[in-house]
Amino acid sequence: QVQLQESGPGLVKPSETLSLTCNVSGGSISSFSWTWIRQPPGKGLEWIGSIFYSGGANYNPSLKSRVTISVDTSKNQVSLRLTSVTAADTAVYYCARDARYSTSSGEFDPWGLGTLVTVSS
Amino acid sequence: DIQMTQSPSSLSASVGDRVTITCRASQSISGYLNWYQQKPGLAPKLLIYTASTLHGGVPSRFSGSGSGTDFTLTISSLQPEDFATYYCQKSSGREYTFGQGTKLEIK
Question: How far is CA B25 from each of CA A41, A105, A106, B68, rounded to the nearest angstrom?
Answer without folding.
Answer: 25, 18, 16, 8
